[in-house]
Specification:
alpha/beta; 10 strands; 2 domains; 381 residues
């Protein structure tokens, strides 16, 4: 899963590590350089013990001294040389203390390549920029411990940057259901053809396996065959499904399912809705009505991981029209890019709750940001 993105992140790690290693190798004998720097500083602080004292020495404020100073190199060039020498001495001293400093210009090329890699993997641009900015903050200019390899420095910075954009508002779906007043109403939204209805069946199986009773509700009243599709899932799982005639009011269907759950002590209502584009004003208004009348406890957006940037854009628009609480990305097992998984949480501020990883009812994986980042950044065994 997300193997293409994993390979690109690995390339960045190798390039950035090589940069740090090369900079470290510039100093053949850092301790000797540091000693020389100390000697130079001592000389510059004042006259030596052998310097003549009294009237034989030339007054530093005399016209002759000023004339001598005017014959020295221009001030700008002197400052530049001093800055260069100071930087070299600083790095030498850092290396002598077992530490390394990575300059921003050293990382410029690896970061540029990383940016291209992230965008090619369908990571949203603002998300890619935040990742790059955090890596710069982590690596550039700060002294770091230099042990056997700088690889750990780069890996930690990359890991922290990825986690900061992926781990957004994360909550445990199961714990939330357990802690909520019953019945818990969960509504699923998204466009047609992304596996929304199948995901509802998977979530039902996930909950039933963990001791929660469920009822399905077909609020997708406009699509021909929708009743049959969700009823087939319900039959396969041995669950009750509430549905109305095609063309009926979606809100009424979910409302009836909530009443059924209350009357029969069912823990969770899982409501399907019509697949819609965020540009379909009439369908979006239906969703707004459902939220207003039923007041679902959770609204979950469903899209395909392989949709990449399109999934990210749709998540943003759906969240704007009817605030979502989390997302499910289907077909994650077929996605080598990972752009949607990296970006959806960041652009909506809402977490990914599950990844769909196959066609079976058990092919639903709770989303763990740290586990994903470990897989993306960690070395293959």
């Amino acid at each position: 899963m997300f193997d293409g993105l994993k390979d690109k992140l690995s390339s960045f790690r190798e390039d950035a590590e090589e940069v740090a290693e090369e900079n470290a190798e510039e100093l053949d004998d850092p301790e000797a350089v540091e000693d020389d720097a100390v000697d130079d500083d001592s000389t510059a602080e004042g006259p030596s013990d052998d310097s003549p004292e009294g009237g034989d020495s030339e007054d530093a404020d005399s016209p002759a001294a000023e004339a001598d100073a005017s014959e020295t190199e221009p001030e700008d060039e002197a400052d530049e040389d001093d800055s260069s020498s100071a930087g070299f001495v600083s790095r030498a001293a850092s290396m002598a203390r077992g530490r390394v400093v990575i300059d921003e210009e050293d990382l410029e090329e690896p970061l540029r390549e990383l940016e291209f890699a992230l965008l090619e993997s369908d990571v949203e641009m603002s998300v890619a920029e935040e990742i790059l900015d955090q890596i710069r903050d982590e690596l550039v200019g700060e002294e770091r411990k230099f042990t056997e390899s700088t690889g750990a420095l780069v890996e930690d910075a990359l890991r922290d940057a990825l986690l900061s954009v992926i781990d957004v508002g994360q909550f445990d779906f199961l714990e939330t259901v357990a802690a909520s007043e019953k019945p818990v109403t969960v509504v699923f939204t998204g466009v047609n053809g992304v596996g929304k209805t199948t995901s509802i069946a998977k979530v039902a199986k996930f909950l039933e396996d963990r001791g929660f009773s469920t009822v399905l509700a077909n609020g997708d009243t406009y699509r021909a065959g929708a009743n049959q599709q969700i009823q087939e899932h319900a039959d396969n799982l041995g669950l009750k499904c509430i549905s109305h005639e095609q063309g009926g009011d979606p809100t009424a269907v979910v409302y009836d399912a909530v009443e059924y759950a209350e009357a029969n002590d069912v823990d969770v209502v899982l409501g399907d809705t019509a697949g819609r584009l965020h540009t379909s004003d009439d369908l979006m208004s239906q969703l707004a009505k459902l939220n207003r009348v039923v007041e679902p406890d959770l609204t979950i957006f469903v899209d395909e991981a392989v949709a990449g940037q399109d999934a990210v854009n749709r998540a943003r628009e759906f969240d704007g029209a009817a605030e979502i609480d989390g997302a499910i990305l289907t077909m994650a097992d077929a996605d080598s890019q990972g752009g949607a998984a990296i970006s959806v949480s960041h652009v909506t501020g809402k977490p990914i709750l599950f990844l769909g990883t196959g066609q079976g009812y058990d092919d639903l994986q709770p989303f763990d940001p740290e586990e994903l980042v470990d897989d993306l950044v960690g070395d293959d065994e």
